[in-house]
Structures are given as C-alpha cells and as structure tokens.
Description:
- The model has no long low-confidence stretch (mean pLDDT 95).
- The longest helix has 9 residues, at 50-58.
- The protein has one domain.
- By secondary structure, it is α+β, with helices and mostly antiparallel strands.
- The chain has helices spanning 22-28, 50-58; strands at residues 10-12, 18-20.
- A two-stranded antiparallel sheet has the order 1-2.
- A hairpin with a 5-residue loop joins β1 and β2.
Amino acid sequence: MKELIEGLHYYINDDGYVVLTEQYHFEKGFCCGNGCMHCPFEYENVPEPKKSQLLKEKLK
C-alpha cells in the first residue's frame, strides 16, 4: 500500500480520530460497505436500511 498523506488521504478530527478522505476511498477504487463518511461511491455495497439512511444524511 502506498504511503498515506495527512490532509490528502486522511485528517484527524476534533475527537482525535483518523478520518479517511474521499480521495483515499477514490484511490482504493471501491465501496467497502462500512458506510464511510466520505465514500465517493454512493455507499453501493452498504446493506439496507443503513444505505438509505446514509444517503439521506449526505443530502443534509
């Protein structure tokens, strides 16, 4: 796996958690099905009803 660059592939949120960016997921090339915050693949592998809930929240 290639080296992750802070600010491009991830950032640290206010709670101290590592958050993977849309760029990271895009380079990975597929939806992992975990409902990641910055998924560029419209949560295509996330099972229902979680998928619909995540898509609705993304529109807010």
